[in-house]
Amino acid sequence: MTSKKIGAIIQARTSSTRLPEKVLLNLPYGSGVNVLQQVIRRLKASKHINQMIIATTTDDADNKIVNTAKKENVLFFRGSKENVLERYYLAARENGLDIIVRITSDCPCIDPEIVDEVISTHLNKQSDYTSNTLIRTYPVGLDVEVINLKTLEKCYNNAKKDLEKEHVTLYVHNNLDKFKTENVSLKGTDKSQIRITLDTEEDYALLCSLFDYLYEIDEFFKYKDIIQLFEGKPWLILINKKIVAKKTFKTVDDEVKEALKILELQELKNARKLLQESLKKQ
User: How many independent structural domains does the chain possess?
Assistant: First the structure.
């Protein structure tokens, strides 16, 4: 399809705030295979990815991440813990990538079929940035972003805010008018209410259940199998229904609105009332 070198860069670290060492947890439970290994093994089935790099930090704690990369016979790059954008850019440049497929290590259900569709769309449309998250219709945890090296370099050179350095593609999202972007949607439906990423213990419990149902039938079960499972067992969605995903906000007002939603969700009524009253006084 193209002579361009397409590489998947998987960001991974052990210092997750909500669930430390989450990508090293066994999945399936007790299997001896960890979450990061599941991500790597699934991406190896992609038809378009030429190379895979695990982008971790220089912290000693992340030697465990490097060991997993070596065990799975994939490349690794060690860089800044806080500046993930820099880590991605340097990893891509060091390995001579033309197109970067960004995947996070907390998505053990990543589907190479979706990955290849996003890559194909990116190539066919000749876009700067393509994803299935600009307009979210796929379950959370099947996220794919594809970005040209030149676009990533532009982000690296122009991102000034800490959040834009912490979140690799946030500069693109904040400056959509400067880039040619494309979105890949789930045809005919919206399943974005399903959450199969790993941030909390509740997420891990759901993923363990999901793998118990699907993994023995097919180690590389597809997104369609996941959707069918949730349709047949709708109670699964209750396991992590109250988990709120981390988000970035353009203004303080937007962040406060989200904080009010979270306080309401967690039934922290007094704290919510106190925050509302303090806002009225401003």
Answer: 2
Enter the pTM of the model.
0.87
Residue 38 sits in the same domain as residue 173: yes
Residue 248: pLDDT over 70: no
Rg from Cα positions in the chain:
19
Q: Residue 52, class by beta-carbon neighbours within 10 Å (0-12 exposed, 13-18 middle, 19+ buried)? A: buried
Local confidence band at 1 (pLDDT 50, 70, 90 cut-offs)? very low
- Show the domain range for 156: 6-183
- Do 29 and 133 sit in the same domain of this protein? yes
pLDDT: which is higher, 36 or 276: 36
Helix (H) or strand (E) holding 181: strand 181-183
Q: Are both 261 and 175 inside the same structural domain?
A: no
Q: What is the CATH number of the domain that holds 109?
A: 3.90.550.10
**Whether 85 contacts 164, CB under 8 Å:** yes
